[in-house]
Amino acid sequence: MILIKSISNDYSTTHVIKYLAEQGIPFFRVNEEKIVTFSLTTAGVTLELSDGRTLCLQDISAYWYRRGSWRFAPKPKMPQNRTSELLTQHIKQEHESLLAFLQELLRIKGNLSDQESARQANKLKQMQLAKAIGLTTPEYIVTGNKTVLQAFLQTHPQTITKAFDHALPFLAEQVLLPSYTTAVTLENLALLPEEFAPSMFQQMIPKRLEIRSFYLAGKIFSMAIFSQLDPKTAVDFRHYNWRRPNRNVPFKLPHTVERHLHRFMEKMPFSSGSFDLILTPDNEYYFLELNPVGQFGMVSIPCNYYLEKRIANHLIHVH
């Protein structure tokens, strides 16, 4: 039995499951909105979902954390006072301990990733590791001081800002406002207060093209994205131009760059993820980041890599 943790609208998960079903491999998908009741006895660990399905952990042969969070039984409703705040905090800590225990049990199964490992993929740690193993990285600072940022902008007039942990989309009045990598200039510096929340600012690297490389259990599948040809996608290709999509083609990274990416993944607690890189007009390769739960369908389909089938086969033969 293969356990898959995902979200309901992740079509990449669905495509992987289709391959499992074709081969008659039993699987158990748990989407984020499903509330889980956890039971631990001498007989083992049992998960019961709010839709009535039940799973015994000893029946799991492989685990794939794709996306989403585990949600345990709903918290009791309590009046708003100091005592209820303490109880709420206590219940939260109990749930976190339970989650940590569950993730430890799942980690020993054959897996591609797990929720805790994915959370550890902090961009600041990644930048330090990438530089240490020989990858070229942009110059960057993390600051909440306007004067410090102004000095950085004077050295690097073309600068971008992005989240150094996880991008947070906002839902306002039924309109989704996603977080993109955004250009920062001396002109809009005036809009900032003297002190603000610590933020990451990074030298903008001139692009010949962007590269998305999906790493799966020791193999790298890369795609070139000609995002610089469109002003809408030039800073961040995720700001898609649906009327005039970027051209995407299969790409082969130089052996040296691939070797560095392999070394990078050897230091990571998971065996799959999506790398973002840039190739400059001077043919230099820059490492930007690794997303352990990044989309791979957008690489798989244009390049005919059939990554969904490869993932399914990996989960089947992980032991």
Description:
With 319 residues, the protein is of the alpha+beta class. 30% of the residues lie in helices and 30% in strands. It is built from nine helices and 19 strands. Strand 18 and strand 19 form a beta hairpin. Helix 1 packs across helix 9. The chain is globular and about 65 Å long. The mean pLDDT is 84.
Q: Which percent bin holds the helix content? A: 25-40%
What is the tally of beta strands? 19
Report on the biggest sheet.
5 strands, antiparallel
CA-atom Rg in angstroms: 22 Å
Query: How far do the termini sit from each other?
Result: 12 Å
Instruction: Tell me the number of helical segments per DSSP (H or I, 4 or more residues long).
Output: 9
Largest sheet strand order: 17-16-15-18-19
Query: Average pLDDT value?
Result: 84
Strand content: 25-35%
Order of helices and strands: EHEEEEEEHEHHEHEEEEHEEEEHEEHH
* Low-pLDDT sequence parts: none
Shape, principal axes of CA atoms: globular
- Structure classification: alpha+beta
What is the strand and helix layout of this fold?
Blueprint: E1 2-6, H1 11-22, E2 27-31, E3 35-41, E4 44-49, E5 54-56, E6 62-65, E7 71-72, H2 82-107, E8 110-111, H3 115-119, H4 123-132, E9 140-145, H5 146-155, E10 159-162, E11 170-172, E12 175-177, E13 182-184, H6 186-189, E14 195-203, E15 209-216, E16 219-225, E17 248-251, H7 255-266, E18 272-279, E19 285-291, H8 297-303, H9 307-316
Parallel strand pairs: 1-2, 1-6, 3-7, 6-8
Antiparallel strand pairs: 3-4, 4-5, 9-14, 10-13, 10-14, 11-12, 15-16, 15-18, 16-17, 18-19
Helix pairs in contact: 1-9
